[in-house]
Amino acid sequence: NYSPSRMSFNYGGGKTGRVPVGIGPRRLRIVVTGGAGFVGSHLVDKLIGRGDEVIVIDNFFTGRKENLVHLFSNPRFELIRHDVVEPILLEVDQIYHLACPASPVHYKYNPVKTIKTNVMGTLNMLGLAKRVGARFLLTSTSEVYGDPLEHPQKETYWGNVNPIGERSCYDEGKRTAETLAMDYHRGAGVEVRIARIFNTYGPRMCLDDGRVVSNFVAQTIRKHPMTVYGDGKQTRSFQYVSDLVDGLVALMENDHVGPFNLGNPGEFTMLELAEVVKEVIDPSATIEFKPNTADDPHKRKPDISKAKELLNWEPKISLRDGLPRMVSDFRNRILNEDEGKGL
Ligand code: NAD
Ligand code: UDP
Ligand code: UDP
Fold first, then answer.
1. Nearest residue CA, atom 24 of ligand 2?
2. Which atom of ligand 2 is nearest to the CA of 89?
3. Could you report the per-residue pLDDT of 97-125, keeping only the tens digit for each?
4. First vs last Cα of the chain: how many Å apart?
5. Where is the NAD(P)-binding domain positioned along the sequence (predicted)?
6. Is 11 designated active site?
7. The pTM is what?
């Protein structure tokens, strides 16, 4: 009984839904868990920009109020400090479920908490979706493919994941979250959507979250060498954040459950990425080699034919066009940090 039409007041089984005020097109009320984080805050900007009401739930583990401060005076915006591992009661039309640390450094910091966030957090949000008849979108990850034996990866590939390794809390946590979403869909009729997101970059990434793009850009601005792990020949495909946000909204508004790969198929080795950073940010930048981390996937590249065909979505911004767009945000924050330290 969800209707994407904003004219419809028929939602949530009737009993728990909000009473519509006035006549005419109705705003959607949307929860974004993890909305104070990197991707979440850009998504919130888009939803507020198109006129919806947005409630962010975040425990500020890796998210920051600074990412949302420009919305604090907007009456259509609310921010709740809450951990999704605990239940919560709200009346909403849609749930974008992003809450979960995404960088390896953060998700390995407390692996048990990462699993609880993925499993109990997702369970609570699906329970909420079931109770109020809301549509639920899970932000899963390309990590469900593990160290893939199929290249590029299609959604039909089941993956090659180590269940007992250092990355398992995240990889297996997200795989379980996908399972939960499908079981609520099949068993309780919850309208779910599953996105498998590939490496994404842009303004508002944490400066020191250990991800390769944020590391290389911050290191170059600080005039430090870029740290290339292993031999630097491993590959990733990098997507600019606005392309991802467009894909998430297209998925939520469409009729297909998924899973859908959302990523930019442009594939780069870490050495090639370092060259691009050098080219677009500072030609004098240098690199240094460091040992790689355990279970690092050797290659990753999305096959996005399914999203192209069914969601009419594809990324628009290449790495060379996207990287310069995050530089001024990184420069400003690094400058503020240095001033704070009295440098
Ligand atoms: P992020 O770390 O910037 O944001 C995650 C947000 O979730 C933060 O604001 C954090 O405080 C919040 N959070 C974490 N645990 C929570 C909890 N228990 N309760 C409430 N809030 C909690 O990461 P991001 O890059 O914005 O990623 C957002 C989502 O997208 C994540 O689910 C991530 O797994 C997924 N994803 C991201 C990428 C990427 O490259 N950025 C790739 C694949 C998947
Ligand atoms: N839940 C929640 N908010 C709600 C409805 C449910 O946080 O509005 C939580 C609930 O506390 C439970 C989980 O979601 O831990 C799953 O709920 P469901 O009703 O599916 O299962 P049950 O409560 O029967 O275990
Ligand atoms: N990486 C690197 N230098 C860094 C950080 C990461 O060479 O300073 C490599 C890492 O070994 C991996 C790739 O970059 O092969 C992507 O790592 P990231 O943590 O950004 O994302 P993920 O491993 O989750 O794809």
1. 127
2. 8
3. 999 999 999 999 999 999 999 999 999 99
4. 58
5. 32-326
6. no
7. 0.93
Q: Considering every ligand atom, which ligand is closest to the CA of 128? A: 2
What per-residue confidence (pLDDT) applies to 172? 98
Nearest-atom number in ligand 3 for the CA of 293 is 11
Determine the Cα–Cα distance for residues 287 and 275; give it in Å rounded to an integer. 9
Secondary structure of residue 198 in the 3-state scheme? coil
Q: Ligand 2, atom 15: nearest CA belongs to which residue?
A: 124
Q: Cα-Cα-Cα-Cα dihedral of 335, 337, 340, 343, to 10°?
A: -60
Q: How remote is the CA of residue 139 from the centroid of ligand 3, in Å?
A: 20
Residue 197: CB within 6 Å of ligand 1? Answer: yes
List, in sequence order, the alpha helices (H) in 189-318. Answer: 212-221, 241-253, 270-280, 305-311
Categorize the per-residue pLDDT at 5 as very low, low, confident or very high, splitting at 50, 70 and 90: very low
ipTM: 0.97
The CA-CA-CA angle for residues 157, 94, 262, to 5°, reads: 30
Q: How are beta strands 267-269 and 235-237 bridged, if at all?
A: antiparallel
Q: Which of 15-29, 101-115, 116-130, 250-264 comes out lowest in average pLDDT?
A: 15-29
Asked if residue 152 has a cis previous peptide bond (ω within 30° of 0), the answer is yes
